[in-house]
Amino acid sequence: MEEKVIIDEDLEWYQLSNDALFERLEVNPEKGLSKDQVLKKREIFGENILPSSKKPSILLIFFKTFLDPLSLIMIVAGVLSLIISLVVGKLTAPDIVGLIIIAFIVIINSIIATVQEVKSQNYVSSLDSKEKKVILVLRDSVKKEIPIEQLVPGDIIYVKAGDFVPADIRIIENQLALIDESALTGENEPVLKDDEAITSNNLVLGDQKNIAFMSTLVMEGKLLGVVFGTGKDSQIGKIATNITTSNKEKTPLEAKVIRLTTIIGIISLILGLILFGLSWLFKDNLDEGVRSWNRLMLIAVSAAISVIPESLTIIVKICLMVATKKMARKNVLIKNPKSIETLGNINVICTDKTGTLTQNKMSVDKVFYNFKETLVNEVDLENNKEFFNCIALCSDAVISKKKLGSPTELASIELAIKAKCNYKKLRKDYKRIDEIPFDSKRKMMTTLNLIDDKKFVYSKGALDYVLKNCSYKLIDGVKTKLTEEDKKVIINTIENFASQGLRLLGLAYKEKTMPKERYEKDLIFLGALGIIDPPRPEVKEAVEIARNAGIRVIMITGDHKITAHVIASRLGIVDDEHNDVITGQEIEELSDEDLKIKLKTTNVFARVNPEHKALIVDCLQSEKNIVAMTGDGVNDSPSLVKADVGIAMGINGSGVAKEVSDVILSDDNFKSIISGVNSGRNVYEKIKYSISFLIAANISQIITILLILAIEKDLALSSVNILFHIFIVETIIAIPIGMGKERKGVMNNKPPLNKKESVLKGIILQITLTTLFNSIFAFLNYQLTFLILDTTNPYRADFAKTGVYIAIIFGPIFYALLYNDTFLPISLRIKTAKKDKFKLNYYLISFMFLAIITTVITLLPIEKLNAFFEFRTENMPYYLWLLFFLFSFVQLPFIYFGYNLLKKTISYYSKNKSAIKSQ
Ligand code: ATP
């Protein structure tokens, strides 16, 4: 006896017999755990939560932001200049202020980053908590639902298709459970589970057939199991320190922006060194106050820092967050900010038909029984009892005050009511004793009912599938063999109904019952219903918009080939180039290579099973397409995961589909996908405006300083000036630029973005021109002051510096207005103008006012203030004020017209060049 216990202890969970399992986990299989046991175990094992699901504290997030490479550069630079100042022993007031400003900028950036991080975490968890996960458990002899966090080892739980396994469990009763373990093992094929103990040793996870692992998904069947591993002790808890990485991963755009900023960071160091070198060279020319090398170092460090667009990463985060909220208002719930970008990049949308392209408001339009077509208003209950029995009994839909059930079933019940069939009474009198539920693979539903002590099978389903299983027919109550001739008549009817876009439902029954596997065999054909499901009126336009935006729309449906094609034509999904339809059966007969070839001309897939969807995504992706796929059922989850953007239906979607998808459509409407793409593209465009604005404003500042230093051997801006510029440009103006109103024009004649495309593509010209004019006018302010003022004026140099300061700060405040679609090619602007009326970016306007007021305060003619900023406004002649402001403002028209002129010239020359080439 003792020996057995020792052996048991060495056994793995999958090797234990049921008794040994219950003994080890101290649970009575009849009763489950008791309340006391649960409390004790909770104390030992804690909550059933994965380590990564615990949220990091705000303080931790805040401190982590300092590890951002850009913050690190700033901190290192600040500390360096502090050390130098201390070593030299001349830490003057402006040095201290400079250091404080650097610290201030780092901290402000960290605060903004922290707020954004916390907000986005809360958003993601608010989406998660909407679907609170519960599981059916046996405790104290009672079955009840509890939140999965409360599970402890020893709990006996019931898991069914559509559930994620809530902990590691040993299966004790298995009913054909098919589990997708790809989250854990990476294996794509679902595993059929078992409940027998296994004797082998050292099994890999995939071979432990009697174990269901936490976070894997039950695709089919159900099982009863005993929990043995929870939270961090589960397999996934042990290996996955961070299963929510997808939410924390950098988006491709963030990654690109970080790369860009790092490159600029390196350039800025070089520029800083040049600045330091030049100013050291000309130091005898400089004001006494700045001559010391620690002051020069601080200026060089500030200037270098000012070149780095450190707020870019935050801007990307904020823009994505704002877009997430905007999209939620348009029924597109984004679960992972990464998918906003991917949505903007997709070039294929694979969409379901029913409910997404159509209204899912079904009604019967055509009835076929006794081998005749009958008008809906003329259906006759008296002579077609079995036909209506089938409608009433093989259905779960109920119409009372509310309509409950699937739209297909509701439509048929409405027909029954029209025919005065009391379906509720039939259901009461003829009890259902067994059933095979509808699934999208068999495309049929069957019930077994007891009628006057006899058992009857009633089946309904896709007409062609039902017909395949019929051997007899019923005409006017008389059962006869179903001949090949009869089948032809029915197929003709199918095609006739389908060519009118009707959805077809076949009805059949039989009197005798056999084993369950044969319920659906040798049926008696009763007739069919042709059901209308009108397309959503807004979809046609949305498909057109998608086409103009270079996005191909592919319909994937379980419906009949002809019906699917008719609906697709009505919606403009098929065209001359893509006019073929492939059925699920054909997909199975084609090799992957042939499917890829067929795909080139096919926009409609009919009678497909969910597995085919994953195959279609695979083929499309192997041809370098970026694919969005919609889905609602549990079985759709592999294709939702595989697609670049998995889109679940909010109304008709299963919990699992929502869980594994990247995006949820709260109105199930295809049009919302298109508005999601529109938002995705807009975010990218707006972020590019911010990037180009920041780079231009930052570079012009250091170029101006270098220009004046090289030509006039003077340092025009102090470190405080430079740091204030960072504050205005980076913190106040650049962020609202990214929050402008959305433009519909992004979808016009524009192919989707190339994933690898540089963020700088298409914005180099505007950056160059802006930098050029900003620096030129700042330089002119400096030079003209010397020209205008008498040599005897002792404040000439100080006024000149004020001019540079005004041009370098007010310039960007004004020309920020250009950073919207102004820089689009003119031809595109004209084309889109009709759709997009000019929309003011109110965020930007209000932040511009804030920037103007703040800067004007720094310019007040107060001696102490002037001394602090190291320029002079006290007693500055009014004409200089006028000149400086004028030269700040005129940068805007110069950049605008200069840009357009240059663009025209370039396109003129490139046209000429290609004309010459073609001659
Ligand atoms: P989609 O895949 O585009 O959302 P679908 O609803 O046409 O569309 P399925 O739900 O797989 O795809 O349905 C396929 C066919 O099965 C339908 O055309 C219909 O004939 C039949 N069908 C649908 N619902 C039921 C049901 N509840 N009972 C029996 N048969 C059904």
Structure keywords:
Calcium-transporting ATPase, transmembrane domain; disordered N terminus; nucleotide-binding; nine-stranded mixed β-sheet; alpha+beta; Rossmann fold; elongated; Calcium-transporting ATPase, cytoplasmic transduction domain A; 26 strands; 919 residues; binds adenosine-5'-triphosphate
Topology (SSEs and partners):
Layout: H1 2-10, H2 18-25, H3 35-45, H4 58-65, H5 69-88, H6 93-130, E1 134-139, E2 142-147, E3 156-160, E4 168-180, H7 182-185, E5 191-192, E6 211-212, E7 217-229, H8 235-239, H9 245-248, H10 252-281, H11 293-307, H12 312-329, E8 332-334, H13 338-345, E9 348-351, E10 363-369, E11 372-374, H14 385-393, E12 398-399, E13 403-404, H15 407-418, H16 423-429, E14 432-436, E15 444-451, E16 454-462, H17 463-468, E17 470-475, E18 478-481, H18 484-498, E19 503-510, E20 523-532, H19 539-548, E21 552-556, H20 561-570, E22 580-583, H21 584-589, H22 592-599, E23 602-606, H23 610-622, E24 627-631, H24 637-642, E25 645-649, H25 655-660, E26 663-665, H26 670-712, H27 719-737, H28 764-788, H29 796-815, H30 826-833, H31 842-858, H32 863-869, H33 878-889, H34 891-918
Parallel strand pairs: 9-21, 9-24, 17-20, 21-23, 22-23, 24-25, 25-26
Antiparallel strand pairs: 1-2, 1-3, 3-7, 4-5, 4-6, 4-7, 8-26, 10-11, 10-20, 12-13, 14-15, 15-16, 16-19, 17-18, 19-20
Helix pairs in contact: 4-6, 5-6, 5-11, 6-12, 6-27, 10-11, 10-12, 10-26, 11-26, 11-27, 12-26, 13-26, 14-16, 22-23, 26-27, 26-28, 27-29, 27-31, 28-29, 28-33, 28-34, 29-31, 29-33
The structure holds adenosine-5'-triphosphate.
Residues 352-354, 406, 408-409, 438, 440, 443-445, 460-462, 503-505, 557-559 line the site of adenosine-5'-triphosphate (ATP).
